Amino acid sequence: MKQFFKKHRVWLLPGISLIAAALVFFVSSPGQAVLASAVKKQLPIYCVEKDSKVISISFDAAWGNEDTQTLIDILDKYDVKATFFVVGQWVDKYPESVKALFDAGHEVMNHSNDHPYMTKLSEEEIIANVTACDDKIEAVTGVRPTLFRPPYGDYNDKVINTLRAMDHYPIQWDVDSLDWQEKGVQPVIDRVLGKVQPGSIVLFHNAAKYTPEALPTILESLIRDGYSFVPISQLIYKDNYDIDHTGRQFPITENNPS
Fold first, then answer.
1. 205 assigned to active site
2. How many CA within 13 A on the CB side of residue 182?
């Protein structure tokens, strides 16, 4: 897995498109009352504006399965409910693990059917790919996903707009544990604790070598610091929100207009 990520990892930072059009329009999305313009790049949710110390822990499950039950046990020990983004092919291989995650109270959400670069797909291919994974997850858990994390963090306006039209909230992260680099336990701990803030979405991988050893220390430290944990669907705003140029989602209110 380490070599795969070294070769294929894509780093995409949120930003503003340089398109010079000035036309303003409304974006159709799941519950999103958001005013956008043709010069604004469409972004997924990287983190959420929160006044309290609440964050979400997430895991991507695409390759191995050897640590899944261990992660379930660790999260249960600290009473933490997380969000697992699973690939459809992973569901095919490990339906019992998908069921175990769901039965333990964790969210099981969509990470594509076969881990492609979504920007290379047509709109029709995106719809088919996401739908295939949704179907597989729902067949095991009885619940249809509403969140989607693009493989490799790879997205563009077409991907985001298509997902929103499918009533899916596109989700990224603002704290990457970099556990896939497999540099040891302490680098994972230091990176997460050094970057987390209220409203953060933290990224781990279910088959990363040092994550099971690093996770208890991370959770214990955050709990001591007053943090609480909720699945991503409970962290994000479902309607009346906007997303700024950094990917931070915030509610639209009289005191906080878009």
1. yes
2. 10
**Distance (Å, whole) CA 246 – CA 175:** 13
pLDDT digits (tens, 9 = 90+) for 181-210: 999 999 999 999 999 999 999 999 999 999
**Amino acid at position 120, single letter:** K
Which amino acid would we find at residue 143? Answer: V
Would residue 8 show up in a list of annotated catalytic residues for this protein?
no
Q: Look up the pTM and report it.
A: 0.85
Q: Residues 60-105: pLDDT tens digits?
A: 999 999 999 999 999 999 999 999 999 999 999 999 999 999 999 9
The single residue of 51, 60, 115, 168 carrying the catalytic annotation is 60
Whether residue 99 contacts residue 244, with contact meaning beta carbons closer than 8 Å, is answered with no
pLDDT bracket for residue 39 (50, 70, 90): low
Contacts of 258 (CB under 8 A, 6+ apart): 34, 35, 242, 252
Report d(CA 48, CA 129) in Å as an integer: 27
Which residue is catalytic, options 106, 115, 168, 205? Answer: 205
Q: Give the Cα separation of 236 and 37 in Å (integer).
A: 22
Q: Which domains does the chain have, with CATH numbers?
A: 2-251 (3.20.20.370)
For residues 141 and 123, give the distance between their C-alpha atoms in angstroms, rounded to a whole number: 27
56: amino acid identity, one letter: S
